[in-house]
């Protein structure tokens, strides 16, 4: 279930099917063409902000959820701030939640259990991407953090063979067209760059077909993307609700006096 949760949070962020034409600006497009155009529009997005909502259950009926926000800047340099303020597993909250900031090739992690593992007294732990070396666990975590990418997320949905328009709805005071469908995970992952394929194929290896809903505005930008999946008796629903595009974002490293170093031989748990 934890693999599914990570995957859902990373990719939740549209195909080749046929349906009646739907409006996108001044142009009439099929559902498949509309989502293909959204993938093209995503190439030009330089920054965005989104709300994160994830709910899941395991085969035994235990439930959990994640709530948070995400800021991501593509240019002039890659930077992100993911703040999962509410995280719970089987009814037990994760104290303090999770926060990860990436700026200037350095990741800053804020997680109470990480403080206990590393023995630091600082609320934040710093990890330089160029200093990770052979620590496979840390490299995997940092690689996953960088996969939260609008272009890759939308590209996954273009593998759908059955996408259709299901109506017009308002999301965040913006009028949108609602599309729904499924995509084969194995085929969808092949549409991504090699580094993204490596990170996501393992996370989604137990999911065959992913259900999705996408709410696209008349500029061709996604206002909400929702994924629904199940595997090995576990289920999840993950959504990203986009609140801004191409605006100046404030993403900065935490104050230096609140940051500790990641010990070279710190224990790592899955």
From TrEMBL:
So which domain of life are we looking at? Bacteria
In the UniProt record, the signal sequence range is 1-21
The record's keywords, sorted A to Z, are: Signal
Coiled coil as a keyword? no
Q: What is this protein called?
A: LppX_LprAFG lipoprotein
Protein species of origin? Acrocarpospora pleiomorpha
